[in-house]
Design a protein that fits this description.
Helix content: 25-40%
Number of helices: 12
Strand content: 15-25%
Distance between the termini: 63 Å
Order of helices and strands: EEEEHEHHEHEHEEHEHEHEEHEHHEHE
Shape: globular
Mean pLDDT: 91
Structural class: alpha/beta
Length: 391
């Protein structure tokens, strides 16, 4: 069972006659497994899969690299179970499940179930982000970047799946994502949306600027759009975000590109004080509820950020200024947002469309016919809407 001391969740399990506890940590905000057993190299993958499906956490005591192999084996079993379930449905009559919105929600459910099962394989950490297992890698830098030094002061446990995500993010952060419009790279932090879909960056890099005096960047993320505006000659950019991790990420990227003195970062919900002749916003494109804290860059529940930007734009634009809204119509093709909703929201906010610039996605999933959302992805268009206050 699990325990909680001062609101800090702990794992609790029995090994022989001894009772043990260990602090639990999940960046996604997942609760600890209610039941935990120790597992090692002797546990068959089928047994591990059965226990994980039942919601039992497997606290690993064996070889670290063997734990990675077990995680792959669990993933194969999850996928085979899904394939069997899909095969049974092929002969069944068509239902609403064939509709885009239903397909999207089912896809998210499948992803969530897969993540839940794979998240049951747990890794112990000693203080200082040291993993007390054979052949364990040095993960101090990756954990320090994502978890921070406060967690390094004590022993804890986290899922192996999350740890591998941290390691991957650490490598992305070191390597960076090349952004041709910048002539350089952006180095994303763990949990901050990476600019791997370059088409929206290209739109901001190519649209005609209404002014080079000042711009606001709403939801700065990695800082990529602020950097593009500064590279294009905007003399000052004021960029906002509510996420401290995003603000730190943007600062490091802007300083690394030699643009730190041109961009002022502020912690704010949407707009900073004052007005600007150009205000740019690239909100999350899907109006759905995030399943975890790190999904807020993808999902905008009830279109809160989108509508907040539109409804506040008029009072923050200088006369004759433009608001640039960068949006994909993926949500419309999934039936998550009515086709006319965006146009109605623009009009209701006292705005009008001065121009629009469209681009088709270039990422691999747009042409992957095996992707469960291919029908919607194949029709997706990303648009930069140039908005003005209606006269």
């Amino acid at each position: 069972m699990t325990q909680t001391d001062d609101a800090v969740p702990h794992l609790a399990w029995q090994s022989g006659a001894a009772q043990h506890t260990l602090r639990w940590h999940s960046e996604a905000g997942n609760p600890p497994p209610k039941r935990v057993v120790e597992a090692d190299d002797q546990m068959p993958a089928d047994t591990a899969y059965r226990l994980a499906c039942e919601g039992t956490g497997l606290l690993w005591r064996g070889d670290f690299q063997n734990a990675r192999q077990l995680l792959l084996a669990l993933g194969r079993r999850v996928d085979r179970a899904r394939e069997r379930a899909e095969a049974k449905k092929k002969g069944a009559p068509k239902t609403d499940a064939a509709q885009p919105a239903q397909a999207f929600h089912q896809h998210r459910q499948v992803q969530a179930q897969r993540a839940r099962i794979l998240g049951m394989l747990l890794i112990p950490f000693d203080a200082g982000f040291t993993i007390p297992l054979r052949r364990a890698p040095d993960v101090h830098a990756a954990c320090d970047e994502a978890y921070g030094q406060a967690l390094a002061k004590e022993a804890f446990s986290a899922s192996l799946r999350e740890l591998l995500g941290l390691i991957g993010a650490h490598e992305w952060r070191k390597k960076g994502v090349t952004v041709p419009a910048l002539g350089g790279a952006i180095h994303p932090y763990y949990g901050v949306f990476s600019p791997v879909r370059g088409e929206y960056v290209d739109l901001v890099a190519q649209a005609p600027l209404p002014s080079t005096a000042l711009a606001f960047d709403i939801g700065v993320g990695t800082g990529v759009l602020s950097a593009v505006l500064a590279r294009r000659g905007v003399r000052k950019v004021v960029a906002t975000d509510m996420d401290e991790r995003a603000l730190a990420c943007a600062r490091e990227n802007l300083d690394g590109l030699g643009l730190g003195d041109r961009v002022e970062l502020r912690k704010a919900d949407l707009f900073p004080e004052g007005r600007a002749p150009l205000i740019v916003c690239n909100p999350p494109w899907l109006p759905a509820r995030p399943g975890s804290a790190i999904e807020h860059a993808i999902y905008d529940p009830d279109s809160r950020m989108l509508l907040g930007f539109l409804n506040g734009l008029a009072e923050h634009l200088e006369p004759g200024g433009e608001g640039w809204l960068v949006m994909s119509d993926f949500a419309e093709h999934l039936d998550l947002r009515p086709a006319g909703m965006l146009a109605e929201a623009i009009a209701a906010a006292g705005l009008e469309v001065a121009a629009r610039h469209d681009i088709k996605p270039r990422h691999g999933k747009a042409t992957d016919r095996d992707d469960p959302l291919h029908a919607a992805r194949s029709r997706e268009t990303t648009t930069l809407w140039r908005l003005k206050v209606r006269a």
